[in-house]
Amino acid sequence: MPIYEYAHNDANTNCPKGQTFEMSQSIKDDALTVCPACDGAVRRLISAPGICTPKTNAELKNLGFTKLVKRDTGVYENVTAVGGESRVMEAGKPETIPHVHKRISD
Length: 106
Ligand SMILES: [Zn+2]
Hints:
- Helices cover 11% and strands 25% of the residues.
- With 106 residues, it is of the alpha+beta class.
- The protein folds into 2 domains: 1-51, no CATH class; 57-105, no CATH class.
């Protein structure tokens, strides 16, 4: 279950755990509105969940993604081009479209 972070809305809380606390909840559960310890009003904080997204073009390429970077009107560079793919995709030139169907099949 994901862990959510909560903060007390009111600074004058008697909560021994302080201003913020973490709560393990199902993703289907509603956010808490009161602290289970002191009944003070709380809000759920937006925190980065443990989801890793590939950052570099090499990582994307290794994972089978295709990344196109716009270079000009109708011109995109395929920065994850693999063997046989055109490095540049141009509008109106279907032969330059990345071979996405090949990647999906494997
Ligand atoms: Zn509290």
